[in-house]
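Before going further, learn to read the protein records used in this course. Taken together, the tokens spell out the fold as the letters spell out the chain. A record is reproduced here so that you can trace the correspondence yourselves:

***
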Amino acid sequence: QVQLVESGGGLVQAGDSLRLSCAASGRTFSSYAVGWFRQVPGKEREFVAAIGVSGVNTYYVDSVKGRFTISRDNSKNTVYLQMNTLNPEDTAVYYCAAVRPTSGSQYIHSYEYLYWGQGTQVTVSS
């Protein structure tokens, strides 16, 4: 079992940066791929970024490529999402999620993930 806790959200202005953290419990966290998703009221949860177990493989939705960077520190059981050049369209609740990879893992679908955090609000004002 893995428990995930997000932190680092807040209210910022357009063009600013934030770094989200996803802290995990459990000794086997390094065996899990981790994804970040975001959701605004009335819309489906959207894939943002994901990272493989070693941290070498990363995946991003097109709208954040070049602005967001996902990374992980397995010694700290933590995954980060560095978000630069934020814009109002990035406003959402951000969730991290974890899954043990399989041969069919794509990491971009919310249904692939077993464990979820409670979310952290990111608000970007114009």
Remarks:
- Residues 27 and 39 are 29 Å apart (CA to CA).
- The first strand starts at residue 4 and ends at 7.
- The mean pLDDT is 96.
